[in-house]
Amino acid sequence: MKYTYLCLFALGTIIACTPSGQLSQNTPSAEESPYLLKVGNEPIQSAEFLYMLSKNRDFEKDEDKLSPEEFEENLELFINYKLKVKEAEALGLHESEEFKREFLAFKEDLKKPYLLENSLQEGELRKAYARMQEVVHAKHILLRFPRNANKEDSIAVFRMAQKIKEKAEAGQDFEELAIEYSQDPSVSSNKGDLGYFTSLQMVYAFEDAVYNLQEGKISDPVLTNFGYHIIKLEDRKPNPGQVKVAHILVRTDADDPMSEDRSRRKIADIYTELQKENSSWSTVCQSYSEDKDTKNKDGELPWFGIGSFIKEFEQAAFSLNEIGEISRPISTPYGYHIIKLIDTKPIPPYEEMEEGLKSKILRDSRSKLIKSQVQAIQKSKYHYQEHAENIIKTKNLLSDQAYEINAIKSLLENEGMMDSTLFVIQSEPRKVNDLINFIENSGEVVNIAPRNYFQPWLDKYIETSLISTEEKDLTENNDEYRLLIKEYRDGILLFDLMNQMVWQKALLDTVGQEAFYEEHREDYKWEKRADAIILTLNRAELISPAEKFLEEKTYSEDLDESIQAKFVDESPISFELKQGTFEYENHPVLKNINTSDKNLQKLKQDGKVHLIIIGKTYPEMPKAFNETKGKVIQDFQESLNNNLISLLRNNYIIQINEDEKKKIENIVVSNN
């Protein structure tokens, strides 16, 4: 498929188009566009030809317009292109499994930028990147739900969260409230203080609440999978980007009461050592650091940003201002550290971060949010209506059923439910029977649970039906998408036809190759040739030694070996050596020397000196087949292509709508 992809775009040059171009605003819609051509009985719309011409061109600019001759040439190429596509269809190439598989793969990629989901996803990416320009400092109080919580439990937790918020807003110390109420396991050490963080480092609902708060304000209870949060925004400031640091670590042991004091004294001695004038960070790090993973790499750590490391370490690292600056010893749960700043960098441009942001967003709760938003828009746009009574009845019938599809079908048929409508999209009813067919044939994998067979499959069927409706809407009503899909479809067929009837045929038909060669033998000739050795010198001081070495030499096949050993091997950038049989009348160097002179000749040209020795010369003569096989195959392919076009032009009636042709000419052809 990859090979086809490359060749498809090579073929695109035949009709002066590339896949990244945009439809010109002058392009008429499919409904407005009468036919420009008829190939056989099939009309080809003006919009398609204009779309092809509009690739990488803006016909509102005079410099992009075509000459009359260019226009006629492009029209002839377009006709040839459509003839080949028509022939491919006549041969049934569009019905092959290989074509269907390849076209479907292209279509899946091509449709993505046009779907609602893509635009909403793009919006979330842009929002996440915009938020990353800031870091926020927040504190929170977490109230978890009891195990196996019911609705009343959830309401009770929510009301408790509201009361805590009221206390905080009344002036009670937020950290004291966190110590008293928060069920976050880390509250005993951080008092609810989360430090600084940025977008995509917290669950989405939490992040959203924080970024929508003003400094000093307290949020309403925020629901996440962890429970209800009450959040206070302490500060927000520009994101400093990322730092690269090295560190020296002296570990502490919580089980050893003497460890803390020993580690503190050791790190102080290391810091004193680093202050000495001749001290080497590398030597000190390798001698004393207790971080086995980094000590032999001078203590270097990967790049990191705000919210990625332990708060104490992060604060110290980002407080360093000068490259090479060393921090005073700091304490973390791992022990004592001395940190050295190696480098800093700002947040990368959006284009560099886009794929990474997309990967993160697709893995977090935003992806579900995007899907639910997409579905809500689709339902509104395509007039989705549920038949709740039939859905409930079907669900109740299937709630206690085993997951064997034939038993389910039998039950529904006995209850007379198979023809019942579950929902309607754009006035088209989707019935129970349609759902059962979907379950049997879709190939989808759906997670189901005991007593819940129906709902997951119904949800998947609704989702799939809405997506297929959106794709159908795109094909029918989005001219750019419709023409792009057609371009790729026809391009694959064109490639398959050419591969079958021209390229592979010419490559594999050895009898045809030799017959073509015999028929066109006069086209494959050697011009006048000479055996020659050419030594090109790039430095003036080397000319004399080279001349002296070559002045008594005559041409021989092994002369290049001695020149290579004498000069080129010792100084490859100063010499360039070529030996062979050359068509000298068109050679950039040999055309300027006397080929009958067998002595050493010297030529200055383009700032370089060439030393040349001529050997045997040869008159014009025919090339043997094996000497020109590549060119023969290339010409044979071109001949087969021309024969194919002639055959197709004879086999298919071509009609040109001169009025439509003139309209397009008026848009794309220069008046000058």
Write the layout of secondary structure elements.
Elements: H1 2-12, E1 35-39, E2 42-45, H2 46-53, H3 68-90, H4 97-111, H5 116-131, E3 134-143, H6 151-169, H7 174-181, H8 187-190, E4 193-197, H9 204-211, E5 222-224, E6 227-238, E7 242-251, H10 259-275, H11 281-288, E8 304-305, H12 311-319, E9 330-332, E10 335-345, H13 350-363, H14 365-381, E11 385-386, H15 388-398, H16 405-414, E12 421-425, E13 428-431, H17 432-441, H18 454-477, H19 479-508, H20 510-519, E14 525-526, E15 529-537, H21 543-550, H22 559-568, E16 575-583, E17 601-605, E18 608-618, E19 621-622, H23 629-651, E20 654-656, H24 658-668
Antiparallel strand pairs: 1-2, 1-20, 3-4, 3-6, 5-6, 7-8, 7-10, 9-10, 11-12, 12-13, 14-19, 15-16, 15-18, 17-18
